[in-house]
Amino acid sequence: MTSNMKRKWLEEGFSLLSEQGAGCLNIDTLTSRLGVTKGSFYRKNAQDHKY
Fold first, then answer.
1. Which of 48, 49, 11, 44 lies closest to 30, judged by CA?
2. Residue 28: is its pLDDT beyond 60?
3. At what angle do helices 27-34 and 38-48 cross, to 10 degrees?
4. Which residue, among 44, 39, 14, 15, has the nearest Cα to 28 in the 3D structure?
5. pTM attached to this predicted model
6. Which stretches of the chain are DSSP H helices?
7. 3-48 topology per CATH
8. How far apart are CA 45 and CA 24, in angstroms?
C-alpha cells in the first residue's frame, strides 16, 4: 500500500471516528467511503507486512 493510500485510510478512519464513533469504524464502512473493495485492502495489506 502506498504511503498516500495509507494516509487516506488513516484520515478516513479519523473522520469516521469523529463523525460516528468507534462503533461505526469497520472495514466495510471504510472501504465504502474510500470506494475500494475489501479484497483489495486485505490483499495489499498482507503484501506489506514483513514479520
1. 11
2. yes
3. 100
4. 39
5. 0.70
6. 3-20, 27-34, 38-48
7. Arc Repressor Mutant, subunit A (1.10.10)
8. 21
Question: For residues 51 and 31, what is the distance between their CA atoms, to the nearest angstrom?
Answer: 25
Q: Position of cell 514483513?
A: 50
Distance in angstroms (rounded) separating the CA atoms of residues 24 and 12? 12
CA distance 14 to 17: 5
Determine the Cα angle at 31 with ends 26 and 16, to 5°.
Answer: 55
* pLDDT value for 48: 62
Kindly state the cell numbers that stand for 5: 493510500
